[in-house]
Amino acid sequence: MRTVIFRTVAPYLAALMVLFSIFVLLRGHNEPGGGFIGGLIAASALAIFGIACGVASVRRAIVFHPMSIAGFGLLLGAVSALPSLFKKQPFMTSQWLEFKFFDVDVALSTPLFFDIGVYLVVVGAISSIALALEERESD
Amino acid sequence: MTQVAIDTTLLAILAPFLAAAIAPILTRYLKHNAAWLLALVPAWIFWHFTGFIAPVSEGQSFIAARSWAPIYRVDFSFYIDGLATVFALLISGIGTFIILYAGGYMKGHAQQGRFFSFLFLFMGAMLGLVLGNNLFTLFIFWELTSITSFLLIGFNHLKAKSRRAAIQALVVTGGGGLILLAGFVMIISVTGEVSMSELLKSPDVIRNSGYFVPIFFLILGGAFTKSAQFPFHFWLPNAMEAPTPVSAFLHSATMVKAGVYLLMRMHPMLGGTDLWMTVLPVFGGATLLVGTILAVRQTDLKLMLAYTTVASLGLLVMLIGTSYERALEGAVLYLIAHSLFKGALFMVAGTVDHEAGTRDVTKLGGLRGVMPLTFLFACLAALSMSGLPPFIGFIAKEVLYYGTSGAPSAAALLTVTAVVGNALMLVIAAAVALKPFLGPKVETPKAAHEGPAMLWAGPAFLSITGLVLAFTTHWTGAQLIGPMLSSLTGTPTEVELHLVPPYFIGNVALMLSIATVALGVVLFWQLDRLRALVAGILAGPLMNWGPDKGFDQVIAAIVSFAAVATRFLQNGKMQTYMALTFVVTAIAVLLPGYLSNGWPAMPKMPHYHFYEWGIFLIAIMGLGAVLIAKTRLTAIVSLGIQGFAVAIIFMLFGAPDLAFTQLMVETLSVVILALVMTRLKLTPRDHRSGGAALVTGVIAVAVGLGLALTIIAITQQPFDRTLSDFFTEYSRSIAHGRNIVNVILVDFRGIDTLGEIAVVTLAGLCVLALIRVRTPRPKDADPAPLKNEEAA
Fold first, then answer.
1. Which residues pair with A100 in a beta bridge?
2. A125 to chain B nearest CA, in Å?
3. Average pLDDT of B753-766?
């Protein structure tokens, strides 16, 4: 698997895939995509990177332990469900904040943060499994 | 009640929990002296509830409530009447001195802050229990007392005996709590009411319903386990492993009275029936006799007191069981008297243990000179326990003898039981209060000296209160006993008490008292012989099995059953698990169709484009490749081909999100499966025999066929567009999103997704743990290579 071509291309490919995954995540509310799919794309990017360049470099690149990323995602998802409670609305009622920023319409919402949470959970959980499995192969 | 009073009452119930939170911090800075500050909390609660004495004695009752989950009719609702007031006063009043006592007793202990915390948690739970109006609230506080009791008994968690005692208490009282919950649920479904105050308004509903018998036994299950009635008494003596402040507070004065409280509370609803008046006196009387006899055998001060506590609880249950007003009055009086003298005596025993280094009564003696204050208060408490004048214990005993001798049925039997029990209690009281202090000075492990104020303040206050209540008989009767008795009988009841018996000639109770004292003195004189006799009987051939041993056997049986069941269900073979799962799936999808004979008709083939046929073909080729693949890796990759083809089918029929996800899932599962394969070091080929392959094949075909038939059957049903229309219509206007699938996932059905991501995270953690478990750890290398890499 570890041919020179693959090893050379893999970092760029992985970077592009992660970028694409974020694009898919953010456009999800209106176009096909979303946190789950985005997370799967990012996880496969990391898996490819791992197969090509070794698990160590992946772990260096993502800084945090993948399980911590998943945990943070879960926390973010849970926290994003809370703001509605302060307005005496039922748990998880979506809150929207729309404003103009340099003449561009920006819509921040709790479902967006929730979706980011989903993304992080999927990336974290799957890549921690994949990396742990790849690790054995390398040593 | 004014809003302020309601809020203050709720705060009073909350206050112990707040104190539990700050106790460790205070203790860190003030060491054991934090107790002086912390004791202010229960003192304030006590002061607050004294405010209720006067209005409650005028026949008023109060409800303080905040709604919690109104849909389920679960509220923080508290009901204050005579019964609740007396219990709240006992808990907070004794609690104040227990906190002080714990300050002195646990002085210098590294975890003293934690100990205070647990004590306060318990205090809050107990207050909530006796004040609880809503049955759910009551149950929650009931279980909280079991849990805090577990924490406190197991406080010295490094000792195996403590751990066993803690688990035993939790299993018995927590299990009883579950039985009680079943009883409450039954009461709610029979009466339709969820609060005590409403239930008490129409007390006959339960008695007259067809479910009286099960409700009765379920409530009894809760009360008997909590109040250590025979044959559930064994956990209480074992709970003496706890530090003495705990024994004094939980296991004599308050928590063990929770069952008695419940019986008293339910008396208007369940009492007076034949069942009640048979079962309660029998078990109560048996507990009384068993408790006192076992107490005599002990030489450990705390264990002697523990068994007499069991006995006293039995006496209370027996008295309540008569449903006779005079006996109930005796029970109420005795409950108050018992809390005071037993709390004091436990603290005395703890002080002796703390200062002299042992609490074995045979190794103690002559301490009166060095511990005069402790001796004094021990005597005061013991006199009350012995039922001698002029103490509240005397009045209680007089009244309860009136009660038993005048009981409507089996008066003679009840009276004899009470006399024997009381005489033996006098023996124990004398043994605890006199033996360590009188006689020649005995060499003790520690050079004994008087304890600090923190240690004798509690016994002093409790024993003197026992004296004061007896001298203010009119006030005690009218303000405490009368209102509490009214709660038991359900009708306003006047109580007039006499410290000096109103007449002497022909006074049955007084005669019985004199007989009790005489019998007690004789037995105390012959205590060593009596102890040897009881020990001899208990060492007999039939006596080496008891509920305590039975508990161990039950627990061991559960554990070995679990082991057998696990070996059977989890035999460690992946193939068995998979085969079972799929066989069950196949049955689940095939059986309904087979039974109802409702095999769906084959749908009409729609017209497909040539490229759609092409995709189908690819999918089938992928499947064929799986079957004929020579190596496992080829099979996995071929399965991927089929998956991709399905993804493209989704795409062609207008489900891009689904297609997208399917594509990614297929990719990742191929990658992960391949990794697992290398990881498990499987042989590249499948070496199973043809027969095994045939079985697997049959299962696979059955599942596939079943699912296909199910899907065909489902699609032939008329399509209900309600949900589709709803989401199409509102996804833009409510959720501001055009992608309906995503809007459903993150907004409309967000809680589902929240649950799912929690599952994904947990599953990830579990898989990670499993992979780690399989990793052999080389001795020279760091067991967790990840850490090194993260640091790099």
1. A105
2. 5
3. 93
